[in-house]
């Protein structure tokens, strides 16, 4: 079994190569994981951003599984952080809402993505959008910084989801909130899926049960947890045949396992009532 660091390294390598690809190439894969889908472009997970103000085609790599910025209840002057910001797509949409008085920070652990996002921001002449290199489970951001946190099809790639949501809680201001689109499971996928590295970087193997996902959010101290949008993801045979035999594919299709995209909302309480030892201590 791979260690957390080995998984991170595999994801980083995969998304580093994706940074130089076009949206067309990425849309024909699972979250841009370059899983071969034949000659036809099959948009498996990504939602259409064209209707959203601030959308910039140069920043859209087709890697998402929802539209978190559409549900994020952003307002003018907000400070927004996008986790796994890629080429900057959600950051630029958020900036169109928060305006010049707001602030948008993208965090990504892939150098190539950060460089591409910064180039896009420079072309748009945005001086209140910045991109920081770092892990989203150890954010290069001070505590109580953000009014809103968004993320699109990224947290499933992180092995330690408890740590990520703990970091989100730390970085949000009291009374702040998040809207996150992600991949979750209902029912159990075949065990051997976990051993296919490409399916991890393609958002599938790293996904966890929907109930467990929501429980982790609650354990991190969030309240008013709600699913804003949910849709089922169907993997085409063109992808499945690359990794599994006919019997395995048939078993998966006839079972009760489901891969779903969900957009989840939650608030950080205005007052921390988790009975922590001291503010900022390890038990918080």
Compact overview of the structure:
This protein is of the alpha/beta class and 284 residues long.
- Helix percent reads 25-40%
Name of the top-level CATH class: Alpha Beta
Tally of separate helices: 10
Task: Work out the oligomeric state of the chains in this entry.
Answer: single chain
Total DSSP E strands: 8
- Helix/strand-derived category reads alpha/beta
The CATH H-level superfamily is: Vaccinia Virus protein VP39
Structure overview:
- The chain has one domain: Vaccinia Virus protein VP39 (Rossmann fold), CATH 3.40.50.
- Strands 1, 2, 3, 4, 5, 6, 7 and 8 form an 8-stranded mixed beta sheet that branches.
- By secondary structure, the chain is α/β, with parallel strands linked by helices.
- About 7% of the residues have low confidence.
- The chain is globular.
- The chain is 31% helix and 21% strand.
- The chain is built from 10 helices and 8 strands.
Give the topology.
Blueprint: H1 4-18, H2 23-27, H3 68-71, E1 79-83, H4 89-98, E2 103-108, H5 111-124, E3 129-133, E4 146-152, H6 161-171, E5 172-186, H7 197-201, E6 208-209, H8 210-219, E7 223-233, H9 237-240, H10 246-254, E8 258-267
